[in-house]
UniProtKB/TrEMBL annotation:
Protein name: Lipoprotein
Amino acid sequence: MGWWKDQMERSRTFAADHKFDAVFQGARINGGEVSYGFKTWPVADCSAQAQTGAELHKMSLGRVAGGAVLLGPLGAVLGGMAKKDKTKVYVALQTPDGPQVIEGPAKDQAAAMTFAARLNAAAEAARAQ
């Protein structure tokens, strides 16, 4: 009986530690870390925003400037993506090393939105601890 209880507790602990895990086009949230390419950062130090190329194409210059003022480097990255391909979806990942832009096909919009939402929720939970 002791072994079974240990296994169940490990399973619950693993599930709690990894409830925000997600993957999008090579970027990965795994436990308390975010990785992309060959770099890894603490999740608490990161944030993300997902946009489709069609949404970015509709952005006006005023919105781009306002985004840069409100979001700093992340807003500037999104502003720079304003003329990108409408058949793509983008995740702007803000890291301690600066913004990273992750590009995927528009059909993966749900995965991009999920990735950004989970990253932001994991970062908020990590900062609250």
